[in-house]
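User: Please fill in residues for this 500-position structure.
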């Protein structure tokens, strides 16, 4: 058990108080998100989407949540509150698995580091994912909790826990497929903690077997349930899914794929954040300090502990081997858990007093650096969205001028080219936060018009794709935005030329 801290909350007697404290801390970290409505790429589509729109990506849990809880996912405020509540509850389950009975200063600060680690923002920038990811975190963590509690139970109780854990994990995978790695990292973290406590190798192997068995069962259940959803809603697998999976590339050049995955592993914790001041050095330095402390403490079990630590870091990259070595940052939801585990295990097992205080300071620095990265990304997203809103309004006004008194309903509009606004604030690689709707995909007129619809200009509709080539000659003769003549009416269509 952890040593009680001054002012710590007893989790056995006051779990509700501890949960409220964690929720409040999480809401504080995400307070800007709670009080603002920043739109990200694709939300202009999902605000108008059907409840079953993500089933063809394998995410049937999204449909279950939208049908059972609320059907409009593109909302400010409320989804983040629910996410904070679910994340806090999952964290208490993590502490329970690691036999922590007090919520003290370190546990609170480490939770802040966990919640603020900016990989979360790469996921939460997509509002459609906020609720499913929240429920997925709780489901995956609860599955791990059931497995750690399964020992010393009757065979019937153990079988029941295994089945329930598999169902919970199937739901988590249906929320986001990479939750399978989040779950496996939980198992590796618990195994490392028990190894450092002196547990026998046989016990560690049994624990690993339970997690591996449930992971396999969960994937099977997820797939079977997905087929039911696909059949019931008459869906076909989206091309987007196929574009990610390039398993043949691994067999063609495995060294290159492993190298690419290793490069991204370093990027997740260090190089992605080099543009954000000291954040990269804080994240990387804290993790190296934690690893060094654990290896020094492990003494005669150093090799096994080192192996488990290596697996903890490598496990989130499992899908990279099937995708050509690279994935968007948002898929690595196990990364904040890795950071938390390293801090927690080091603070628990490194017995030197100054080192324990040092890991508390490192946890605080990670939390501060994470909040700084998020604030920077928010600043970019806010400024670029303001640009897009102003541009959309200007396009609307100049379209009305071009139409004169003869205003059709709806107004067919086509936009050629793109505008790439600049910002003093950096952008996180592989994310869309702070990207312009008038630049993404090299300029997508349908995306631009959907944004106009979402912010209130409902009378505009995109020109059908088949009609666009007919206006190529006209576009060549038009000047580029914002010069006079860059918005023109031709028949029943408004043409807007943003770039050559």
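Assistant: Residues filled in for all 500 positions:
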């Amino acid at each position: 058990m952890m040593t009680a801290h001054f002012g710590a909350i007893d989790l056995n007697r006051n779990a509700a108080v501890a949960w409220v404290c964690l929720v409040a801390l999480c809401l504080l970290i995400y307070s800007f998100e709670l009080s603002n409505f920043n739109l990200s790429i694709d939300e202009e589509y999902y605000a108008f989407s059907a409840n079953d729109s993500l089933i063809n990506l394998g995410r049937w849990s999204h449909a279950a949540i939208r049908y059972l809880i609320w059907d409009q996912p593109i909302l400010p405020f409320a989804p983040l509150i629910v996410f904070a509540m679910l994340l806090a509850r999952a964290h208490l389950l993590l502490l329970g698995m690691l036999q922590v009975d007090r919520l003290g200063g370190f546990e609170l600060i480490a939770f802040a580091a966990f919640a603020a680690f900016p990989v979360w923002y790469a996921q939460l920038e997509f509002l459609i994912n906020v609720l499913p990811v929240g429920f997925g975190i709780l489901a995956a963590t609860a599955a791990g909790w059931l497995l750690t509690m399964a020992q010393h139970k009757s065979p019937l109780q153990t079988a029941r826990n295994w089945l329930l854990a598999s169902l919970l994990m199937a739901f988590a995978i249906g929320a986001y497929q990479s939750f399978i790695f989040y779950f496996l990292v939980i198992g590796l973290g618990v195994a490392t903690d028990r190894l450092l406590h002196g547990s026998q190798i046989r016990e560690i192997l049994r624990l690993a077997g339970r997690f591996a068995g449930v992971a396999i069962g969960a994937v099977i259940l997820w797939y079977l349930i997905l087929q039911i959803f696909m059949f019931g809603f008459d869906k076909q697998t989206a091309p987007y899914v196929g574009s990610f999976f390039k398993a043949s590339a691994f067999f063609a050049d495995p060294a290159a794929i492993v190298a690419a995955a290793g490069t991204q592993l370093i990027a997740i914790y260090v190089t992605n954040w080099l543009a954000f001041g000291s954040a990269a050095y804080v994240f990387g330095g804290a993790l190296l300090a934690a690893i060094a402390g654990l290896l020094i403490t492990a003494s005669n079990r150093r090799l096994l502990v080192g192996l488990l630590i290596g697996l903890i870091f490598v496990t989130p990259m499992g899908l990279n081997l099937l995708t050509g070595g690279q994935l968007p940052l948002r898929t690595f939801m196990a990364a904040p858990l890795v950071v938390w585990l390293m801090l927690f295990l080091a603070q628990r097992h490194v017995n030197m007093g100054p080192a324990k205080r040092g890991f508390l300071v490192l946890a605080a620095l990670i939390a501060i650096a994470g909040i700084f990265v998020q604030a920077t990304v928010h600043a970019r997203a806010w400024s670029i969205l303001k640009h897009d809103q102003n541009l959309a309004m200007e396009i609307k006004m100049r379209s009305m001028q071009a139409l004169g008194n003869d205003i059709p309903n709806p107004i067919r509009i086509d936009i050629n080219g793109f505008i790439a606004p600049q910002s003093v604030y950096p952008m996180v690689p592989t994310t869309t936060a702070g990207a312009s709707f008038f630049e993404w995909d090299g300029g997508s007129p349908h995306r631009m018009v959907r944004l106009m619809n979402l912010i209130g200009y409902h009378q505009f509709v995109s020109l059908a794709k088949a009609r666009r080539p007919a206006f190529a000659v006209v576009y060549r003769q038009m000047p580029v935005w914002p010069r006079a003549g860059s918005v023109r009416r031709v028949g029943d269509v408004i043409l807007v030329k943003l770039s050559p």
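For context: The CA atoms of residues 278 and 369 lie 8 Å apart.
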